[in-house]
Amino acid sequence: MTGRGGLRPALLVALLGAVLLALCLLSLAVGAAGIPPDQVVRALFGHAPSPLVENVVWSARMPRTALGLAAGAALGLSGALMQALTRNPLADPGILGVSAGASFALVLAIGVFGLGSFYGYVWFAFAGALAASVLVYLLGRLGRSGLTPVKLALGGIAVTSLLTSLTSAVALTDPEALDRFRFFSAGTMADQDAGAVLRVLPFLCVGAVLALACAPALNSLALGDDVAASHGRRLGLVRLQGVAAVTLLTGAAVAVIGPVVFIGLVVPHIARVLAQSAGIGPDQRWLLPLSAVLAPSLLLAADIVGRVVARPTEVQAGVVVAFIGGPFFIAMVRRRNLAEV
Question: What family name appears in the similarity comment (predicted)?
């Protein structure tokens, strides 16, 4: 589990932590008004060279960076958890319709029921995420071959397309819902304050605890249901706990940054490659935390690139991630046996 005396895993964690820290500093420095890194560090320690620098760092970019950390970790964890629960390398909250379900429920709550507060509509996001995941699972089980990774992915794409169309239809009938839909449909951390981070954090923390607590059972589940049951694992309880974690993590993340697709797909595969190189192997006790660190790194990097490539405007982080994840998803599907569809 720990490679040669634990040294290589420790170095891997330290390296990933350093990369994430560097991206956080870049996120605070890069934007329409660039700030030198040394001034960012001074502002963080209460010695900003000017009130303008202090305001930009703390009021504008710090909430955006913190939200990228929290939501990115949530999406990475939920993707890794979904892939482990379903033993499906194509699983991702965005691909399997979970994010689309949360988005549709959010727009429904705002446009139809008139809910405007986070604590009012976040429960709709949870319900939508759960309902979509159940529907995709049932669709994936149809046919003589039963549940397969490709059928599950195709069912998710179909449900996502349907829910996206319904979301657009509801948004177009209500100006407030349309305004909010336009804001988060592409996936963005912009124009958020510190309150958004504080509101979403309790849900993400509970979801993360539930997800990480599943790790030992997921190692047994990877060997098959019969083996897991022989190890004393209560499979129904494990899956229920996993679904609850995915619902909380995905629903809360979508409620604040929108449906960012492909992070949950790409990151667990990168985590497995890095874990293998560090001698850890397919141990979910390492893969889940690694995914929780890698995902915010990818999301923050995408957000930083989006601020730079189209100055003075911005490209939303979700769009940048899609440019990376789209080809990755196609490559993954091509590796599967499409004859099973």
Answer: Belongs to the binding-protein-dependent transport system permease family. FecCD subfamily.
- Start-to-end C-alpha separation, the chain: 36
Token pair, residue 207, equals 């979801």
Instruction: State pTM to two decimals.
Output: 0.88
Predicted confidence at residue 184, as pLDDT, reads 64
| Half-sphere exposure in the Cβ direction for 104 (13 Å, CA) | 22
Which one is predicted more confidently, 120 or 333?
Answer: 120
Q: Which CATH code is given to the segment(s) 7-340? A: 1.10.3470.10
- Domain residue limits, the chain: 7-340
